[in-house]
Amino acid sequence: EEREAERRAQAAAEAPEKQQPVPEEIGERRELPIAALEDFPAELHKFHPASRERLEGLKDSIRANGIISPLIVRPLDADRYQIIAGHNRRTAARELGYDTVPVIVKRYLTDGEAIRLKNDDNLMQRDGMLSSERGWAYRQNMEEINRQGKRTDLTLSQFATKLDSAAEIGKKVHKSRDQIFRYIRLTYLIPELLDLVDKKQLGLTVGENLSYLTVDNQETVYLFCFTGEKPVKLTEAVAKTLREIQDDPDRIIDADTLEELTAKHTRTRMRS
Hints:
The chain is α/β, with parallel strands linked by helices. It is 55% helix and 9% strand. The chain has twelve helices and five strands. It has helices spanning 2-14, 52-65, 87-95, 111-125, 131-147, 158-173, 177-186, 191-198, 204-210, 215-226, 236-247, 255-271, and strands at 28-33, 37-38, 71-75, 81-85, 100-105. It has a five-stranded mixed sheet with strand order 1-5-3-4-2. Helix 4 (111-125) packs antiparallel against helix 5 (131-147) and helix 9 runs parallel beside helix 11 (236-247). The relative contact order is 0.07.
C-alpha cells in the first residue's frame, strides 16, 4: 500500500498541471438585430445622448476597430430587448449601416439593478460626463445599494450606512467619499441651477452649498443672480453665508439680502 501511494504521488507530480475552469461571464453573448432593440426608459435615468462630435468620434472608432464593448440588454419578450447600456454605440452602428450588434443579455434584472448596471457602464465608458449625470448616477447607485440591504448591520446608524455606500461607489470610480457626496448634493438643485453647474457657470462647491437651500430660496437666488442684464457672480463664501441665513429664523433670503451680500463680497475681493 505504501508503494502504491508513492507511485500515485509521483504520477501526480509528473502530470501536467490541470487548468482550472474559468467562470463563464454572467450573461449570454449574442448578435442581435438593431431593429429588435428598444431604448431604456428616459424617466429612469439622467444620461443625455452623445453630442454629434462625440458620436462622430465613436463612429470613427467603430470603423477602425468594430464594436469592442458589447451592448448590455435585457429581454422584454421573445423578440424584443431593452438596451441597458450602449445607446450611443447602437446609434453609431446604425448610422454606419450595421444591421446587427454584439450584446450581452442579462436576464431577471429588476429596474433598480438595471439602472445601477447602466450607471456603472456609463461611469466606466464615458469621458466628459456632465456633473448632473455623475451626481444622478451616484445617487441612484447609493439608493439601490441601500435598498438591497447592504451595509445594514444593526450596529451602524443610517448615516454610517450611507457613508459605507459612498465609499463603495467611490472605490469603483477612484473618488473619495466626500467627492461622491458633493456630486450627489447637486441633484437637489433646481433644474436651472443644475444646468449652470453643467455649463460650468456655477462652481461645483457653490452648487453643493446652494443645494441645501429650499426650493423657494434657490429660485430667489437664480432670479436675482442669473436673469438680469448682467449675471451676478456667486462665490463659495456667499453660498455658505446663504446657508447660514436660511438657518437663522430672524433673517430671510430676498433680493435686498442678495444685493447686500454679493456687493459686500465683491468689495472684499477688490480690497484683497
